[in-house]
Specification:
single chain, 273 residues, 434 Repressor (Amino-terminal Domain), Beta-Lactamase, 5-stranded antiparallel sheet
Protein backbone atom coordinates (compact mmCIF):
# COMPACT_ATOMS: atom_id res chain seq x y z
CA UNK A 1 0.00 0.00 0.00
CA UNK A 2 3.03 2.23 -0.33
CA UNK A 3 2.86 3.49 3.23
CA UNK A 4 -0.78 4.54 3.11
CA UNK A 5 -1.41 2.84 6.41
CA UNK A 6 1.09 4.96 8.29
CA UNK A 7 0.39 8.54 7.34
CA UNK A 8 -1.05 8.72 3.83
CA UNK A 9 2.02 10.49 2.51
CA UNK A 10 3.71 7.52 0.86
CA UNK A 11 6.22 6.96 3.67
CA UNK A 12 6.48 4.39 6.45
CA UNK A 13 5.79 0.68 6.77
CA UNK A 14 3.33 -1.36 4.78
CA UNK A 15 1.50 -4.65 5.07
CA UNK A 16 0.15 -6.74 7.90
CA UNK A 17 2.90 -5.80 10.35
CA UNK A 18 2.30 -2.07 10.02
CA UNK A 19 -1.45 -2.48 10.46
CA UNK A 20 -0.99 -4.73 13.49
CA UNK A 21 1.24 -2.11 15.12
CA UNK A 22 -1.40 0.56 14.49
CA UNK A 23 -4.23 -1.57 15.88
CA UNK A 24 -2.23 -2.66 18.92
CA UNK A 25 -1.35 0.95 19.74
CA UNK A 26 -4.99 2.03 19.33
CA UNK A 27 -6.19 -0.82 21.55
CA UNK A 28 -3.64 0.14 24.21
CA UNK A 29 -5.03 3.68 24.21
CA UNK A 30 -8.62 2.45 24.38
CA UNK A 31 -7.94 0.06 27.25
CA UNK A 32 -5.72 2.50 29.10
CA UNK A 33 -2.85 0.03 29.38
CA UNK A 34 -0.07 -1.18 27.10
CA UNK A 35 -0.73 -4.33 25.10
CA UNK A 36 2.73 -5.85 24.64
CA UNK A 37 3.70 -8.04 21.72
CA UNK A 38 3.98 -10.98 24.11
CA UNK A 39 0.27 -10.76 24.94
CA UNK A 40 -0.73 -11.04 21.29
CA UNK A 41 1.81 -13.81 20.71
CA UNK A 42 0.45 -15.80 23.65
CA UNK A 43 -3.11 -15.45 22.32
CA UNK A 44 -1.90 -16.84 18.97
CA UNK A 45 0.06 -19.61 20.73
CA UNK A 46 3.23 -18.36 19.08
CA UNK A 47 6.57 -17.15 20.38
CA UNK A 48 7.13 -13.49 21.12
CA UNK A 49 9.98 -13.48 18.62
CA UNK A 50 7.67 -14.82 15.89
CA UNK A 51 5.12 -12.09 16.54
CA UNK A 52 7.82 -9.43 16.72
CA UNK A 53 9.05 -10.55 13.31
CA UNK A 54 5.47 -10.47 12.02
CA UNK A 55 5.01 -6.85 13.09
CA UNK A 56 8.47 -6.06 11.77
CA UNK A 57 7.56 -7.34 8.31
CA UNK A 58 10.12 -10.14 8.12
CA UNK A 59 7.43 -12.84 8.11
CA UNK A 60 5.32 -12.92 4.96
CA UNK A 61 3.25 -16.06 5.57
CA UNK A 62 -0.46 -15.18 5.67
CA UNK A 63 -2.33 -15.40 8.96
CA UNK A 64 -5.06 -18.02 9.23
CA UNK A 65 -8.74 -17.20 9.67
CA UNK A 66 -8.42 -18.29 13.31
CA UNK A 67 -5.40 -16.01 13.79
CA UNK A 68 -7.33 -13.05 12.39
CA UNK A 69 -10.33 -13.76 14.63
CA UNK A 70 -8.08 -14.10 17.68
CA UNK A 71 -6.32 -10.80 16.98
CA UNK A 72 -9.62 -9.06 16.25
CA UNK A 73 -11.08 -10.17 19.57
CA UNK A 74 -7.98 -9.34 21.61
CA UNK A 75 -7.57 -5.86 20.11
CA UNK A 76 -11.30 -5.10 20.02
CA UNK A 77 -11.41 -4.53 16.26
CA UNK A 78 -14.74 -3.61 14.70
CA UNK A 79 -16.17 -5.13 11.53
CA UNK A 80 -14.43 -2.74 9.12
CA UNK A 81 -11.07 -3.00 10.92
CA UNK A 82 -11.26 -6.80 10.79
CA UNK A 83 -12.07 -6.62 7.10
CA UNK A 84 -9.12 -4.29 6.50
CA UNK A 85 -6.74 -6.64 8.31
CA UNK A 86 -8.03 -9.59 6.28
CA UNK A 87 -7.62 -7.67 3.01
CA UNK A 88 -4.04 -6.67 3.83
CA UNK A 89 -3.32 -10.26 4.87
CA UNK A 90 -4.66 -11.51 1.51
CA UNK A 91 -2.96 -8.84 -0.59
CA UNK A 92 -6.12 -6.89 -1.38
CA UNK A 93 -9.59 -7.63 -2.71
CA UNK A 94 -10.54 -10.36 -5.15
CA UNK A 95 -11.36 -8.10 -8.10
CA UNK A 96 -8.86 -7.70 -10.93
CA UNK A 97 -8.29 -4.10 -11.99
CA UNK A 98 -7.01 -5.20 -15.38
CA UNK A 99 -10.29 -6.97 -16.18
CA UNK A 100 -12.55 -4.07 -15.29
CA UNK A 101 -14.00 -1.87 -18.02
CA UNK A 102 -14.59 1.85 -17.37
CA UNK A 103 -18.01 2.19 -15.73
CA UNK A 104 -20.85 3.49 -17.89
CA UNK A 105 -24.14 4.75 -16.53
CA UNK A 106 -26.89 2.90 -18.36
CA UNK A 107 -30.03 4.57 -19.67
CA UNK A 108 -32.03 2.72 -17.01
CA UNK A 109 -29.84 3.95 -14.16
CA UNK A 110 -29.93 7.44 -15.66
CA UNK A 111 -33.74 7.24 -15.59
CA UNK A 112 -33.69 6.27 -11.91
CA UNK A 113 -31.29 9.12 -11.16
CA UNK A 114 -33.36 11.71 -13.01
CA UNK A 115 -36.60 10.64 -11.36
CA UNK A 116 -35.29 11.10 -7.83
CA UNK A 117 -37.13 13.95 -6.06
CA UNK A 118 -33.93 14.88 -4.21
CA UNK A 119 -30.33 15.63 -5.26
CA UNK A 120 -28.63 12.42 -6.39
CA UNK A 121 -25.39 11.39 -8.04
CA UNK A 122 -23.41 8.34 -9.17
CA UNK A 123 -19.69 7.94 -8.46
CA UNK A 124 -17.18 5.25 -9.36
CA UNK A 125 -14.84 3.36 -7.01
CA UNK A 126 -12.43 6.31 -6.91
CA UNK A 127 -15.18 8.88 -6.24
CA UNK A 128 -15.18 10.31 -9.77
CA UNK A 129 -18.62 11.76 -10.53
CA UNK A 130 -20.25 9.78 -13.35
CA UNK A 131 -23.69 11.41 -13.40
CA UNK A 132 -25.87 13.84 -11.44
CA UNK A 133 -29.51 14.87 -11.62
CA UNK A 134 -30.57 18.50 -12.04
CA UNK A 135 -31.26 18.91 -8.31
CA UNK A 136 -27.68 17.95 -7.51
CA UNK A 137 -26.38 20.27 -10.19
CA UNK A 138 -28.35 23.17 -8.70
CA UNK A 139 -27.16 22.48 -5.17
CA UNK A 140 -23.53 21.64 -6.02
CA UNK A 141 -22.49 23.19 -9.37
CA UNK A 142 -18.96 21.77 -8.99
CA UNK A 143 -20.39 18.28 -9.57
CA UNK A 144 -21.13 19.09 -13.22
CA UNK A 145 -17.58 20.13 -14.10
CA UNK A 146 -15.77 17.55 -16.28
CA UNK A 147 -13.48 15.43 -14.13
CA UNK A 148 -15.34 16.28 -10.91
CA UNK A 149 -14.29 14.11 -7.97
CA UNK A 150 -16.13 14.07 -4.66
CA UNK A 151 -13.04 13.44 -2.53
CA UNK A 152 -10.92 16.08 -4.23
CA UNK A 153 -13.66 18.67 -3.81
CA UNK A 154 -14.41 17.92 -0.18
CA UNK A 155 -10.80 17.49 0.96
CA UNK A 156 -9.09 20.19 -1.12
CA UNK A 157 -11.66 22.85 -2.04
CA UNK A 158 -11.92 26.05 -0.04
CA UNK A 159 -15.63 26.11 -0.93
CA UNK A 160 -16.08 22.72 0.76
CA UNK A 161 -14.48 23.96 3.97
CA UNK A 162 -16.75 27.01 3.91
CA UNK A 163 -19.93 25.05 3.19
CA UNK A 164 -19.37 22.10 5.56
CA UNK A 165 -19.99 23.39 9.09
CA UNK A 166 -18.33 20.27 10.49
CA UNK A 167 -15.72 19.98 7.77
CA UNK A 168 -13.19 18.10 9.90
CA UNK A 169 -15.78 15.49 10.90
CA UNK A 170 -16.88 15.01 7.28
CA UNK A 171 -13.27 14.95 6.07
CA UNK A 172 -12.42 12.32 8.68
CA UNK A 173 -15.11 10.03 7.24
CA UNK A 174 -13.57 10.53 3.80
CA UNK A 175 -10.09 9.66 5.05
CA UNK A 176 -11.43 6.53 6.74
CA UNK A 177 -13.01 5.45 3.45
CA UNK A 178 -9.79 6.18 1.54
CA UNK A 179 -7.87 4.10 4.06
CA UNK A 180 -10.30 1.22 3.61
CA UNK A 181 -10.14 1.48 -0.19
CA UNK A 182 -6.34 1.40 -0.03
CA UNK A 183 -6.30 -2.02 1.61
CA UNK A 184 -8.93 -3.31 -0.81
CA UNK A 185 -7.14 -2.05 -3.95
CA UNK A 186 -3.46 -1.60 -3.07
CA UNK A 187 -2.37 -1.60 -6.72
CA UNK A 188 -4.92 0.89 -8.06
CA UNK A 189 -2.82 3.79 -9.42
CA UNK A 190 -5.79 6.20 -9.60
CA UNK A 191 -6.59 5.57 -5.94
CA UNK A 192 -2.95 6.01 -4.92
CA UNK A 193 -2.83 9.30 -6.82
CA UNK A 194 -6.05 10.47 -5.16
CA UNK A 195 -4.64 9.69 -1.73
CA UNK A 196 -1.37 11.44 -2.53
CA UNK A 197 -3.10 14.53 -3.94
CA UNK A 198 -5.60 14.98 -1.11
CA UNK A 199 -2.86 14.46 1.48
CA UNK A 200 -1.21 17.64 0.22
CA UNK A 201 -3.72 19.43 2.45
CA UNK A 202 -1.98 19.57 5.88
CA UNK A 203 -5.32 19.16 7.68
CA UNK A 204 -6.05 15.99 5.71
CA UNK A 205 -2.54 14.66 6.30
CA UNK A 206 -3.09 15.23 10.02
CA UNK A 207 -6.30 13.18 9.88
CA UNK A 208 -4.38 10.29 8.30
CA UNK A 209 -1.84 10.41 11.11
CA UNK A 210 -4.27 10.84 14.02
CA UNK A 211 -6.74 8.16 12.93
CA UNK A 212 -4.41 5.47 11.55
CA UNK A 213 -6.54 2.70 13.08
CA UNK A 214 -9.89 4.06 11.85
CA UNK A 215 -11.62 2.63 8.77
CA UNK A 216 -15.01 3.09 7.09
CA UNK A 217 -16.42 1.31 4.06
CA UNK A 218 -19.43 3.58 3.49
CA UNK A 219 -21.01 6.88 4.51
CA UNK A 220 -24.61 5.71 4.35
CA UNK A 221 -26.65 7.66 6.91
CA UNK A 222 -23.95 10.28 7.45
CA UNK A 223 -25.42 13.70 8.29
CA UNK A 224 -23.90 16.80 6.68
CA UNK A 225 -24.49 20.20 8.24
CA UNK A 226 -24.01 22.74 5.49
CA UNK A 227 -24.42 26.38 4.54
CA UNK A 228 -25.17 26.40 0.82
CA UNK A 229 -25.13 29.40 -1.54
CA UNK A 230 -28.49 28.34 -2.99
CA UNK A 231 -30.03 28.87 0.45
CA UNK A 232 -28.18 32.12 1.16
CA UNK A 233 -25.91 30.45 3.64
CA UNK A 234 -28.62 29.25 6.03
CA UNK A 235 -27.96 25.96 7.82
CA UNK A 236 -29.15 22.84 5.99
CA UNK A 237 -28.81 19.26 7.23
CA UNK A 238 -28.42 16.63 4.52
CA UNK A 239 -28.55 12.87 5.05
CA UNK A 240 -26.61 10.65 2.62
CA UNK A 241 -28.33 7.44 1.47
CA UNK A 242 -25.95 5.17 -0.44
CA UNK A 243 -27.04 2.49 -2.93
CA UNK A 244 -24.89 0.03 -4.90
CA UNK A 245 -26.15 -0.47 -8.48
CA UNK A 246 -25.78 -4.15 -9.38
CA UNK A 247 -24.86 -3.26 -12.95
CA UNK A 248 -21.96 -1.05 -11.85
CA UNK A 249 -19.77 -3.04 -9.42
CA UNK A 250 -17.75 -0.78 -7.16
CA UNK A 251 -19.87 2.28 -7.98
CA UNK A 252 -22.35 4.01 -5.69
CA UNK A 253 -25.49 6.04 -6.15
CA UNK A 254 -26.12 8.56 -3.39
CA UNK A 255 -29.36 10.40 -2.64
CA UNK A 256 -29.31 13.45 -0.36
CA UNK A 257 -32.43 14.08 1.69
CA UNK A 258 -33.03 17.07 3.92
CA UNK A 259 -33.51 16.83 7.66
CA UNK A 260 -35.52 19.73 9.03
CA UNK A 261 -33.83 22.04 11.55
CA UNK A 262 -34.96 25.22 13.27
CA UNK A 263 -32.63 27.12 10.96
CA UNK A 264 -33.62 25.18 7.85
CA UNK A 265 -33.62 27.22 4.68
CA UNK A 266 -36.58 25.42 3.11
CA UNK A 267 -36.87 22.60 0.64
CA UNK A 268 -34.09 21.23 -1.49
CA UNK A 269 -34.35 21.79 -5.22
CA UNK A 270 -36.44 18.90 -6.53
CA UNK A 271 -36.76 17.09 -9.83
CA UNK A 272 -40.37 16.26 -9.29
CA UNK A 273 -42.96 16.96 -6.60
Amino acid sequence: MRGVMSDGSGEGGTGVGALLRVFRAAASTTLGRPIPQREVADALHRSERWYRDLEGGTISRALTRHDLDTIGTLLGLDRVQRRALALVNNGGGLSSLEDQEPPRVSDELRLLLDQQPFPAYVIDATWNVLAVNSSMAALFPWSTVPGANLMRWLLLSADAQDQHLNWEVDAEVCVRMLRDAAVDRPDDPDLQQLISDTSQNPAVRDLWTRGAADFADHYDGHVLQMTLPLFDGQVTELVAHVLHPAGLPGCRMTILTQRATRESAGELPAQAK
